[in-house]
Design goal:
By secondary structure, the protein is an alpha+beta fold. The protein has one domain: Up-down Bundle (Rhopdopsin 7-helix transmembrane proteins), CATH 1.20.1070. It is 59% helix and 9% strand. It is built from eight helices and four strands. A four-stranded antiparallel sheet has the order 1-2-4-3. α1 packs antiparallel against α3 and α3 runs antiparallel to α4. The termini are far apart. 45% of the residues are buried. The N terminus and C terminus are likely disordered.
Length: 253
C-alpha cells in the first residue's frame, strides 16, 4: 500500500502514505503519493453517514449484553466518520480540522477500538490471543497518532473522490499492524458471526484496494453500510443466546 516519497531518517525511509490505499504514485505531481477514497459528493457522504449511524442506533438498542456494546456502537463511529468527510469536502479539502479529525478516527482510534470491542464480545477462550492483538493495536495506534500529531495531514478533492495523505515512518509495519489488529481480531474472535464478518471486511479491503489501483471510484461507502447491516444481524442474533452460551455475560436490563 505505501509508496516511497520522503527523506531517509535513521536508516528508514519516511513516506507520505494514503489511507486506506494509495493511488498510482506516477500521478503524483508534488512529491507525495495520492489515493482516491470514499464517496461521490458531500451530500452522498452526509446521507451515507446518517444511514450508517441509524444502523448503529439499531445495533445499540438491540444489545442485551453489555460486552457487546462497544462493537455494536462501531457503526455510530463509522457514520460520524462519513459525516466528517462531508465537512472535508465542503471545506475544499486541505489540512483543516475536519481532515485531522478524519485521520484520527480512521487511523489510531479504529486501530484500538476494533480489537478492544471484539475482545469484549468474544468468548473467554479467545481472549488471550485477542489480548495480544489489542496490544498490537495500541502500539500501532501510538505510531499512527504520532504521525497525525506531527502532520501534515492533507485532503485533496479529486472529482468524485478524496485523497488523504499523512507522513508515516515505517509504513509497512504500521499498515500490517493495523490490519492484523482490526481484521485479524475479527477472524480470530472465536465467534462464527464475527469471523464471517472479518472475512467480509478482509475481502472488501482487497476489492477496494484493487479498484483504487485501477482508478475506479471507491465502494467504501457502500461497503461500510453493508458491514454495518451485517453487524446488526449479528447483534440481533445474540439476543437468542442463553447466558451459558454467551459466556455468562452481564445482561443489559
Amino acid at each position: 500500500m505505501p509508496r516511497p516519497g520522503g527523506p531517509a531518517a535513521a536508516g528508514f525511509a519516511e513516506r507520505d502514505v494514503i489511507w486506506p490505499a494509495p493511488h498510482d504514485a506516477a500521478d503524483a505531481d508534488d512529491g507525495r503519493t495520492h489515493g482516491d477514497v470514499m464517496c461521490w459528493s458531500a451530500t452522498a457522504d452526509l446521507v451515507a453517514g446518517a444511514g450508517v449511524a441509524a444502523v448503529g442506533m439499531a445495533c445499540v438498542t438491540s444489545v442485551r449484553d453489555r460486552r457487546d456494546l462497544p462493537l455494536a456502537a462501531l457503526p455510530l463511529l463509522l457514520g460520524a466518520h462519513q459525516m466528517v468527510e462531508a465537512v472535508v469536502r465542503h471545506s475544499g479539502g486541505g489540512s483543516g480540522p475536519a481532515t485531522v479529525v478524519w485521520a484520527v478516527i480512521a487511523l489510531p482510534l479504529l486501530a484500538v477500538w476494533v480489537p478492544a470491542a471484539v475482545r469484549c464480545a468474544a468468548p473467554p477462550a479467545a481472549r488471550r490471543r485477542l489480548t495480544f492483538l489489542l496490544a498490537l493495536g495500541v502500539a500501532t495506534a501510538a505510531g499512527l497518532a504520532a504521525a497525525v500529531a506531527a502532520g501534515p495531514v492533507t485532503a485533496d478533492i479529486r472529482g468524485h473522490t478524496v485523497g488523504y495523505a499523512v507522513r508515516l515512518s515505517h509504513p509497512a509495519v504500521l499498515v500490517a499492524g493495523y490490519l492484523l489488529a482490526t481484521v485479524g481480531s475479527l477472524l480470530l474472535s472465536g465467534d462464527r458471526g464475527l469471523s464471517a464478518l472479518g472475512a467480509v471486511v478482509g475481502a472488501g479491503a482487497v476489492v477496494c484496494f484493487a479498484l483504487w489501483r485501477l482508478e475506479f471510484v471507491s465502494t467504501w461507502c457502500a461497503f461500510a453500510a453493508v458491514w454495518s447491516v451485517l453487524l446488526l444481524g449479528w447483534v440481533r442474533g445474540r439476543r437468542g443466546l442463553r447466558p451459558a452460551a454467551a459466556g455468562r455475560r452481564d445482561r443489559v436490563p
